[in-house]
Amino acid sequence: MTPLERQLAGEIRASGPIGVDRFMAAALGHYYGTRDPLGAGGDFTTAPEVSQVFGEILGLWSADQWQRLDGPLPVRLVELGPGRGTLMADMLRALRVVPALRQAVEIHLVETSPALRARQAATLAGSHPDVTPHWHDALADVPEGPMLLVANEFFDALPIRQWRRAGETWRERLVGLDAAGQLAFTLGPEGHPPIPPPNDAPDGALFETCEPALAVAREIGRRLSRAPGAALLIDYGHGRTAAGDTLQAVKGHAFAPVLAEPGEADLTAHVDFDALGQALAAVGANVAPLAPQGQFLIDHGANLRLDALLRGKDEDAALVLKAGVRRLLDPMEMGRLFKVLAATSPERSPP
Ligand SMILES: C[S@@+](CC[C@H](N)C(=O)[O-])C[C@H]1O[C@@H](n2cnc3c(N)ncnc32)[C@H](O)[C@@H]1O
Questions:
Q1: pLDDT tens digits for 58-93?
Q2: 155: CA distance to ligand 1 center in Å?
Q3: How many C-beta atoms surround the C-beta of residue 289 within 10 A?
């Protein structure tokens, strides 16, 4: 038993089963707080770690949005869950094509992990020594004003609750202890999911809700409606609210049992983009139709950027560059499962 598992078991013995959200928050707090889990030597990889083209295209998208907003200054470039800082470093490099923005932009990183904050500081000090990033625990702590916000694989790491359909009612899925004292799923009393579950969910189906994700989306939308700005949320998930069990654990680039070794594996759940879009729109943001990541990157010039990068490269370097971009774009890899939700301030046409 890991120390966190012992702590959770003690909590359950004292007060009864806990929500999946409490389990996920405790496990991910320990997991991200104690390591850099990204890359080949870690547990999983992400688009910015696969190819620099990802961050460069997001940088160009942000610069384009800023120009469409008539170039407000000062402007904050905000990233939620910046991982190793690679995405921000690649975006800042691309922003050099708009010097007025690159020179004026303030960097705000929303990151709770001390280990990853240190990694982000090292990445940005090495690649952009002229910038002074500011770190925050939550978006609510970032000063208000014109903003360009990006979040890649942030929302899938926020704690979800799970609900099981039982005839005409729903019961929350909880984490309790089995006869051997091991963490095990159980069901709570009848309850109401915080957003309406799909009517066609069959008996026994699981439905997932993520209140922290909706709260962050509302905060983004509120900020966009008060000051000019644009936001790009990228994650894997579904475009329509649907039933399904998507909670998964990944360790060493392989799936692991969800309840085994809490705090030692990554835990994620698919993002409900339908609910996120509605939360943004409900507070006045202008929300664009959801786009598959591959299509979004192609439409914004990923292949042109690849061609430019390939110029003068030897065969080995060219193969690596091409494989990275293919992984981002290919519908069988990250191109379709990952999706892009864009939002802007209300008076603007959708991005
Ligand atoms: C899956 S990683 C994605 C990293 C990066 N965006 C990338 O694409 O490589 C999730 C990131 O979100 C951070 N994170 C997770 N939960 C968070 C929370 N509640 N508040 C702020 N950051 C959080 C993690 O520490 C990590 O930096």
A1: 999 999 999 999 999 999 999 999 999 999 999 999
A2: 8
A3: 10
